[in-house]
Amino acid sequence: MISIDSLTLQRGPLRLLEHANLTLHAGQKVGLLGTNGAGKSSLFALLRGQIEPDAGSCSIPADWRIAHMQQEVSALERNAVDYVLDGDQRLRDIQQRLATAEQQEQAEALGALYAELDSHGGFSADARARTLLAGLGFSTEQCERRVGDFSGGWRMRLNLAQALMCPSDLLLLDEPTNHLDLDAILWLEDWLRSYPGTLLLISHDRDFLDAVVEHIVHFENRSLHLYRGGFSQFERTRAERLAQQQSAFEKQQAQREHMQSYIARFRAKASKAKQAQSRLKALERMEELGPAHVDSPFSFSFREAANQSMPLLDLHQGTLGYDGKAILEQVKLQLAPGARIGLLGPNGAGKSTLIKSLAGSLPLIGGELKTGEHLAIGYFAQHQLDSLDPKASPLLHLARLAPEERDQVLRNFLGGFDFKGDRIEEPVLNFSGGEKARLALALIAWQRPNLLLLDEPTNHLDMEMRHALTVALQAFEGAMLLVSHDRALIRDTTDELWLVADGRVQTYNEDLDSYTRWLAQFRQQQAAANAPEPASSAPKVDAKAQRRAAAEQRQRLAPLKKAADKLEQELNRVSELNAEVENALADSSLYEADSKDRLKTLLSQQTDYRQRIAQLEEDWLQAQDELEALQQELGNS
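The structure corresponding to this sequence follows.
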């Protein structure tokens, strides 16, 4: 187990932990939460033996193998699959000794080394490495490319694959989802759930934490606080504690009043009813969870646009792609004020292509794009972080957009993004990715957009900034098109989902949970489509024998199919029960003092149903995988 006893940890003049205590048992999966600079990464360094405690102790079993995700890439000339295999240092050591023994023709040593290689799983290592790469979104062709040919985000995926390749008893992952799309995140969730060792995970993705960890360690006031459950349970528990503080209550009330004002103004208007209903759901969530974020340094809003157009954008029979090669065809869409759309779709299907085309940064191959007279786009994409002037400060960046505005007004606005004190006048050259992302969002928010095109806006953002962005987007009255791997952000800020797949863009009438199942089926179809064609010269089979074999196959498949169907039926049943509880929680009278017991009961039921839904989805996916594997086996027999 990991035992931390009266630990004091200091980096320079800053004391991160003071007399902190914590015990984690082998096999536990734990999420680490805390503000930037609270000491999460320093704890990782301590566990890896890179730094020593200033006082107290931190101990782990001496024989534990530790794997971690590197933040830098140096072996640029290695191809991708070899780079991933390098993560298994013992494998490389055995292979090196084998090469030496072969060169020196040491027959006896070769026998022992091949036995050692076999016991270590060395003969299947290449296949396992390629499976990891495929799960993280790499194509077969990309596995052979050199590391230096990949962009920074894809190199981080290689580092993650290398960490997963390393046999370990303790796995340390620092923001593994930052550069992943939703496809890869869902795959990683499954992988980590089946990981047999102890997992310590730093992440700002609440759904990812809920899916993977069963404990949360919160870094707060230089101490370590252990909470049972995933992020949602932690948030509820902490909210209950902080709700007793008057300052928490006052800040929460101010946010509630803002959202209630929106609901009161627009709920009765047919054109705004859907958005108002979305805000009402968000308000219910805020009443329960708002106090957990009372100490957030972020509080901002998107300045209201001066004018609107109807529609803002109108794309007719669009053909979208790069260098004349179409990725999306026959795209027809119209964005009106108030539209709030989340884009879903497999990796590489064209979500970013659509965003870029609508933003005007990627010319159409065909079709017509009409823009409204008063269209004002706020476009966020990862490349915009690189377009910031490295020598300019946050204040100078904003002053260039508003040269006539008073200095104090600009400072107050940037303060909502936590640019304060000396930091507001420092050049962005040495800013972190999170600080650059916050500045890019601040510049967009200042310019009064009436259409937001957001492509992965939460990359690099911590939990508190994500919460502030969610609140700001909920209050934003313009239109929005959002691509994000943060399912909580999609769920809490959009009213409609579009599916980008198979070269088309179409309305998706299901929810995010259904999309997870859709994605699993899509992967199966892709795998089947990419399977090698059967030989055309196959011998003829007697028709009677063929029918008998088909009957036997159906008999073997029937139990698995029945189990999968039963799980899906149970999943639908529990989902309906959960929906009933959530509808009950929408009753505002439930939050009166005399309904406290019923509120607690409903919240407990909601937690139980959500956990049951997550488990049923996992079991259903596993049943589908087993069914597919048997189908392939029977098909090959």
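Confidence is low (pLDDT under 50) at residues 535-541.
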